[in-house]
Amino acid sequence: MKKLINDPKAIVPEMLEGSVSLAPGQALLAGETVVLRHPLAEPNARGVAVLSGGGSGHEPAHAGYVGEGMLTGAIAGDIFTSPSTDAVLAGLEAATGAAGALLIVKNYTGDRLNFGLAAEILRGRGGRVETVVVADDVALRGTVPKERRRGIAGTVLIHKIAGAAAERGDDLETVAALANEAAADLGSMGLALESCTVPAAGKAGFTLGEDEIELGLGIHGEPGVRRAPLQPVRALVETLLAAIIDDLGLTKGERCVLLVNGLGGTPPMELDIVAGEALRQLAARGLQVERAWCGTLLSALDMRGCSLSLLRVDDARLALLDAPTRAPAWPGGGHLNPTIHLPSAPSTAVPTEASGRAAPQPGMEAMRRAILAAAAAIEQAEGELTDLDARAGDGDLGASLSRGAEALRALPDSVWTSPDRALTAMAEALRRAIAGSSGPFYATALMRAARHLQTHPANPREAAPAFAAAARAIGELGGAGEGDRTMLDALLPAARALKAATERGETPAIAWAEAAKAAASGAEATQTMAPRLGRASYLGARALGIPDGGAVAISIWLKAIAGAL
Question: Alpha-carbon dihedral of residues 32, 38, 42, 47, nearest 10 degrees?
Answer without folding.
Answer: -100
